[in-house]
Design goal:
Blueprint lengths: L4 E9 L5 E7 L9 E26 L2 E10 L9 E12 L3 E10 L21 E9 L2
Antiparallel strand pairs: 1-3, 2-3, 3-4, 3-5, 5-6, 6-7
Pfam family, one: OMP_b-brl_2
InterPro entries: Beta-barrel_OMP_2
Organism: Spirosoma telluris
């Protein structure tokens, strides 16, 4: 099938439980008083909204039609709302500010089940997230 294009967005509420440790003080020649941080722990997420759109040859039962389909991301044929995974990160604590880099890997397949529009969704979806953060301590 040629000419398929799709977009999607979703919003989720995600509390994370991370354990962190300050490993060591960085050498003074790099920076004064900075400490290296490592974090790791699980995350839990719940999808609360979003929309998905596909334009192209869409399969409806035994019929193929070129059209645009738009649905809610977490509707009947959409993604699963609940997700769980693990995360890890590294950062530098400068006292009042922290600069960090983190990665999260979803462990649960949140792909749709039941009657879905093929090829709108692939067979498996697992969240992956890379984040760069700047934190300020009050």
């Amino acid at each position: 099938m040629a000419g398929l294009s799709g977009t999607g967005s979703y919003f989720e509420k995600q509390p994370a439980v991370c354990a962190g440790t300050r490993l060591c003080r960085l050498p003074d020649r790099c920076t004064t008083g900075a400490k290296l941080l490592l974090t790791a722990g699980p995350y839990f997420a719940y999808g609360i909204g979003g929309k998905s759109q596909l334009t192209g040859d869409i399969l409806y039962g035994d019929m193929i039609e070129y059209s645009t389909l738009e649905e809610k991301t977490f509707a009947n044929r959409g993604l699963e709302r609940f997700d769980v995974g693990i995360g890890t990160g590294i950062g530098v604590d400068f006292g009042k500010a922290i600069v960090g880099l983190s990665y999260e890997l979803g462990l649960r397949d949140i792909g749709p089940s039941g009657n879905v529009y093929w090829p709108f969704y692939s067979t498996s979806y697992k969240n992956r997230n890379v984040a760069l953060s700047l934190e300020y301590k009050f």
